[in-house]
Design a protein that fits this description.
The chain has 433 residues and is an alpha/beta fold. It contains 13 helices and 16 strands. Helix 1 (31-41) runs antiparallel to helix 8. The structure holds pyridoxal-5'-phosphate.
Length: 433
């Protein structure tokens, strides 16, 4: 006789997991994505820095489509999100030695792109309810050296956009919106990324619009656009119209020192197709997330991130919640995340470590860092106090967005896993002894 598994026993302790079926696949593609890729493969044109073949390159077509999607005129695609941040900072003339406000809780690239151009990241604490940069802390952190504010919309929340736009206007300090986790979200009817001087995106594999690696900067400003183009293609920019086949499509300008951060035609071919699905996929994730939130509310002890009333369309990059740890037996967020991972068969993780104590953020140990002693002190991440970000690290966990790409039955499994852990938390003590 087959021994029946005990469904009430936690999977991490050898019981049967809540989730048996696979989750929806991410990244995903269809025959149209495939057709674009094959088209590039046999086109004789794999990069924009090659001769014109009589057809508009995919990179340019994607740039136009992505700009139009946002209701702005200009988009410069890049190799990845980090290079998009880099050229955004350089286009805004953020100078060596000046300061850039960066949220204390975000992906390391936000800070390392700043140190990469020789500027100093000033780590700013976050709001407890959205995990995005705190407007009050940002105001306090501004000094006469501040040259940009990097606002990040994190996980499944939007920052207080209006307040940051007002702060930027009042101080004259440009605003960079990093939307690498918020493609397609809207605030009072307008896409995020269009409120700052520039909007920056990553299209790395985990993001909701992806070509494996990829990035983009959008802007309304034609002068910034000109600089952004040259910064990403070794000082070159598109010639414009009336091209003949065989002629180089990029002309050499050299008004500003650029580097090669170009997106390949393969990346652009994927993105041009996948962009068509972004709104529908965001809507699907939002519907499922709303359903999940109401189920989690019934369980209790699980708090979703705050949604500002100005947000009319929310993007879910990771579904993020804060736990009342007492209701989970005061077990650590790491252990609860691992327990959820084994119930659900998908990686559930605490939020990243705040940047004042993050293994990936080591500006002092970079050969790029100037040797002067006061710069070394300025670059020490430990000089920043980030109590709200540190508390979020202890209490919040995140689940990748693909769990939201099925139906109600799928998200019911997530609620069931939380409920099972809450009911059985006393057995987790065994694992910590
Ligand atoms: C992913 C991400 C980046 C970096 O993008 P890459 O494409 O990995 O270089 C920057 N900022 C945020 C908020 C991100 O989530």
């Amino acid at each position: 006789m087959i021994k029946k598994h005990d469904k009430s026993k936690l999977a991490i302790l050898g019981g049967e997991p809540v989730r048996q079926n696979p989750w929806p696949v991410w990244p995903c593609a269809d025959v149209n994505t495939e057709r674009n890729l094959i088209d590039v493969l046999h086109s004789g044109r794999w990069t924009i820095s090659g001769p014109y073949t009589g057809k508009k390159p995919y990179e340019r077509r994607f740039a136009e489509a992505f700009a139009e999607f946002h209701g702005v005129h200009h988009c410069v695609p890049t190799a990845n999100g980090s290079s998009a941040l880099t050229i955004a900072l350089e286009a805004l003339n953020v100078k060596n030695g000046t300061e850039v406000l960066v949220p204390g809780l975000t992906w390391v690239a936000c800070a390392s792109s700043v140190t990469g151009i020789g500027a100093v990241p000033v780590l700013v604490d976050i709001e407890p309810d959205t995990l995005c940069m705190s407007i009050n802390e940002a105001e306090r952190a501004i000094s006469r050296y501040t040259s940009a504010i990097m606002l990040v919309h994190l996980f499944c929340a939007a920052a207080q956009i209006d307040a940051f736009v007002a702060l930027s206007k009042k101080t004259g300090i440009p605003l960079i919106e990093d939307c690498s986790q918020a493609h397609g979200a809207t605030w009072k009817g307008r896409r995020v990324g269009t409120f700052g001087e520039v909007g920056v995106f990553s299209m790395q594999q985990t993001k909701v619009l992806t070509s494996g690696e990829g990035g983009a900067v959008i802007t309304r400003d034609p002068d910034l656009y000109d600089r952004l183009q040259q910064l990403r293609a070794d000082g070159r920019r598109y010639v414009g119209s009336n091209l003949k086949a065989g002629q180089m499509e990029l002309e050499e300008i050299g008004a500003i020192q650029g580097r090669n951060y170009c997106m390949s035609e393969f990346q652009a071919a994927i993105l041009l197709d996948r962009l068509k699905h972004l709104d529908a996929q965001n809507t699907l994730r939002e519907e499922n997330a709303n359903h999940l939130r109401s189920m989690l509310q019934e369980i209790g002890g699980i708090k979703p991130l705050y949604r500002h009333p100005e947000v009319d369309k929310l993007t879910h990059y990771h579904f993020c919640v804060r736990l009342d740890l007492e209701e989970f037996g005061n077990n650590s967020i790491e252990l609860i995340s691992r327990t959820l991972t084994s119930e659900l068969g998908i990686l559930v993780e605490p939020v990243d470590s705040p940047l004042n104590n993050n293994i990936l953020y080591n500006p002092q140990h970079s050969p790029r860092t100037p040797v002067s002693k006061d710069i070394k002190i300025k670059y020490d991440p430990k000089r920043f106090n980030l109590p709200v970000a540190e508390k979020a690290r202890r209490e919040c966990l995140t689940i990748p967005h693909r769990v939201l790409m099925g139906g109600k039955k799928d998200v019911a499994d997530i609620a069931e896993a939380f409920e099972k852990i809450k009911r059985n938390h006393q057995y987790l003590a065994r694992l910590t002894q």
